[in-house]
Amino acid sequence: MKTLLLILSVMTWTVTSNKTVSGEGDVPSDIVAAYANTYNKGQVRANDTATLVLSGLSGATINSIEVYVKSNKSSGAGQFTVTADGVTIASKSGSLSEWVGAYDNQNYHAVSLYQGNEANVNELTIRLVGTVSSLYIDQYVISYTVAPVHSVTLMRGANIVNVLTEQKGGAGVLLPSLPDYNDWHFMAWTEQPFYTVNALPDIWYAAGERYYPASDGTLWAVYEYESEPATEPVTDLQPGIYIYYNTQDNLAVSGVPVNGRMDYADASIYNGNQFYEILFNAACDSATIQHVETGTYIGYNGTQLAAKQSVWSVYHNGDKTAFYTTVSGKTYILWPAVYKGGEIFSGLLEAQNISTTPTVIVHVPQEIEEKAFTCYPETGRDIEAVPADTREIIIPIGNYQLRISNGKKTIRL
Predict the structure, then answer these.
(1) Cβ distance 185 to 200 under 8 Å?
(2) pLDDT score at 221
(3) Which residues pair with 218 in a beta bridge?
(4) Contact 6, 148 (CB under 8 A)
(5) How far apart are CA 35 and CA 19, in angstroms?
(6) DSSP character at residue 203
(7) Neighbouring residues of 113: CB distance < 8 A, sequence distance ≥ 6
(8) Is 183 helix (H, G, I), strand (E, B) or coil?
(9) pLDDT at 311
(10) Residue 297 DSSP symbol
(11) What pLDDT shows up at residue 53?
(12) 191 phi and psi, to 5 degrees?
């Protein structure tokens, strides 16, 4: 059993101007201190503000905060507020007389703002807003406990891969990538292990990300089953259901026209919003395009996209396919991701030479298996048990039916 020896540290910050403080005592090496007073050095009149922000505390536990203040001869009041990582942990309103028993314009008195154990603090803010002239701040004295060093055990299934230990408390550990395992591709890390499911957990951590453990703990590698069907661009045009995308950036047309433009997304035969029924004429030099999920036609009005049935001209050469229209003697291609005015959308883009297009269409397979994820790639691909449901779900979409049965999707006429 590991025993943690926690040593109390004390740092003192003395006000040196209305923009600076000087640190003494047990000052953390990575700390950054920022001080600002809207008036003069430590003096805070009515409606003035003095703020000290300490960042880079690396998960320390704050134990106590004292501020040394004095007042005018017969007045001086305000409100102190203390926040840790943006959350208020203490506040104190009143006058110096109420806090220490009398006003004093000669000597500074310690005013306690906080006593406790606020853990995992990275940024501490102490703010004084004046209500009656004047209070004067000399020093801030903060007692704290350095965050303990934690270790993280990395697992692949039931096997320990590595143990990472922070170089110092609160520093975190850098998560590595792991090699693929048979047909399973490494994806991420998770705190809660699971057997095969069809979706990533809500909380996961990417390789290359810094992970900050609150205690000694364990992370499990998450793998994705690489069952991607063949997605070769079509070379022989025929009616069917396709996705249409740009091979240079792997971005596909998605959704339906709204206000003259459409959405875009990473090309995926798993994304039903990218499925379009394309009907070519006999010569395959023109076609109509219909969004499968909604039955909405993809057409155009001039140089804007429109939810209407339009006849598109078709360019096809080898595995390259493009849909375009001609307006006032100019060629406009249906483009999966137009960059214009700081925005990105699918729309019509003027093309000087359509034969250079990188766009392609890819058949959506009639049967698509759900994606699979697991922390135990060595156990195979059986989906985690769920309540039995032998029903086949049939969803009509245009001239087709989407059938879902036993975790598989099938598209049929």
Answers:
(1) no
(2) 97
(3) 153
(4) yes
(5) 5
(6) S
(7) 65, 66, 67, 80, 82, 90, 92, 126
(8) coil
(9) 97
(10) B
(11) 98
(12) -85, -20
Measured from the Cβ of residue 372, the count of other Cβ atoms closer than 10 Å reads: 21
Measuring CA to CA, which residue among 65, 45, 43, 54 is closest to residue 111? Answer: 65
Residue 29 makes CB contacts below 8 A (sequence gap 6+) with none
325 pairs with which residues across the strands? Answer: 332
Residues in the chain: 413
Instruction: Say what the pLDDT of residue 201 is.
Output: 84
Residue type, 260: G
Amino acid at residue number 62: I
* Residue 274 one-letter amino acid: Q
pLDDT in tens, 359-412: 999 998 766 566 789 999 988 765 443 333 444 545 455 455 555 555 455 555
Q: What is the pLDDT of residue 50?
A: 98
Q: Give the whole-angstrom CA distance, residue 215 versus residue 380.
A: 32
Strand partners, 362: 243
For residue 403, with 0-12 CB atoms within 10 Å meaning exposed, 13-18 middle and 19 or more buried, which class applies?
Answer: middle
Structure tokens given for 172: 């975190």
Strands 312-317, 320-327: pairing is antiparallel
CA distance 163 to 55: 29
Q: d(Cα 204, Cα 404) in Å, to the nearest integer?
A: 28
Check residue 390 and give its pLDDT.
Answer: 44
Residue 143: closest CA among 160, 168, 122, 118: 118
Cβ atoms of 397 and 410 closer than 8 Å: no
- In the numeric block, which tokens belong to residue 256? 């339906």
Comparing CA positions, the residue from 291, 204, 202 lying closest to residue 254 is: 291
CA distance 348 to 295: 21
Segment holding 350, helix H or strand E: strand 343-350
Q: Which two tokens stand for residue 30?
A: 């990575």
Question: Cα(331)–Cα(315) distance, rounded to whole angstroms?
Answer: 11
Residues of the chain falling short of pLDDT 50: 1-5, 383-391, 393, 395, 398, 407, 413
Identify the helix (H) or strand (E) that includes residue 48. Answer: none
β partners of residue 125: 53, 83
Residue 58, H or E segment:
strand 49-71
Determine the pLDDT at residue 228: 52
Q: Which amino acid is at 16?
A: T
**What Å distances lie between residue 408 and 226, 315, 389, 402, CA to CA?**
15, 34, 13, 10
